[in-house]
C-alpha cells in the first residue's frame, strides 16, 4: 500500500490532532503544536497538513520571501531595476517518524514547488508572481540528501554558518508563455 495515494491535504485547523505528531526535530514538533495556528491567525505563514488515516503524517509551512539581488551571483537571466525578487519561503517541512522512507518528504517538496509555479500561471490574473522557492537549512545532512537532489542550489551565505540558505529557481517565462499572457 502506498500512503501517497491516500493522503488528504488540508490547511491546518484547530480540529486537527496535532498531539500525536512526532518527527526527528523537537523544534518542528513544537512549532506545529504551539505556534502554527497563531502564525496563521497573524498572517505570518500558513501550514498545510498531510493526513493519512486522519493523522498528521507531515506538514509544510509557507510564507512570502524575497531574494536580494545585490547579494546574489549566478542569476544571469534577470533584467530588472528591482533590488529584490519575490520568492516563496518553505519555512518548515516535517514528516512523522512513522512515515520515514515512503516518499512523503519529496511529495511535500514537489507540492511546494507546484504551488509556487501556480502563482505564475496565466489564469492567475490577480495573483502575485514568484521566481524562487527559498529554504533555510539547519540540518546539513539534508542539503545533499534532500534539497540538492531536488533542484535546490545555495544562495546568500549566513555569517554564523549555522543556517544554510538555498533556493529553487522556477525559471523565467518562455516566449510562448509571454505571448499567451498578453
CATH superfamily: Gcn5-related N-acetyltransferase (GNAT)
Helix count equals 4
Q: What overall geometry do the principal axes of the alpha carbons give?
A: globular
Count up the domains.
1
Q: Tell me about the largest β-sheet.
A: 7 strands, mixed
CATH topology: Aminopeptidase
Oligomeric state of the chains in view: single chain
Helical content, roughly?
A: 10-25%
Query: What CATH architecture would you give?
Result: 3-Layer(aba) Sandwich
| Average pLDDT over all residues | 87
Tell me about this structure.
Helices cover 25% and strands 30% of the residues. With 182 residues, the chain is of the alpha+beta class. The chain has a single domain, classed as Aminopeptidase (3-Layer(aba) Sandwich). A hairpin with a 6-residue loop joins strand 6 (153-157) and strand 7 (164-169). It has helices at residues 26-41, 104-118, 141-147, 175-181; strands at residues 8-11, 46-52, 55-68, 84-95, 132-137, 153-157, 164-169. It is globular, with a radius of gyration of 17 Å. The protein contains 4 helices and 7 strands.
Structure described in brief:
The chain is an alpha+beta fold. 25% of the residues lie in helices and 30% in strands.
Please describe the structure with a list of short key phrases separated by commas or semicolons.
182 residues; Aminopeptidase; seven-stranded mixed beta sheet; disordered C terminus
Strand and helix layout:
Elements: E1 8-11, H1 26-41, E2 46-52, E3 55-68, E4 84-95, H2 104-118, E5 132-137, H3 141-147, E6 153-157, E7 164-169, H4 175-181
Parallel strand pairs: 4-5
Antiparallel strand pairs: 1-2, 2-3, 3-4, 5-7, 6-7
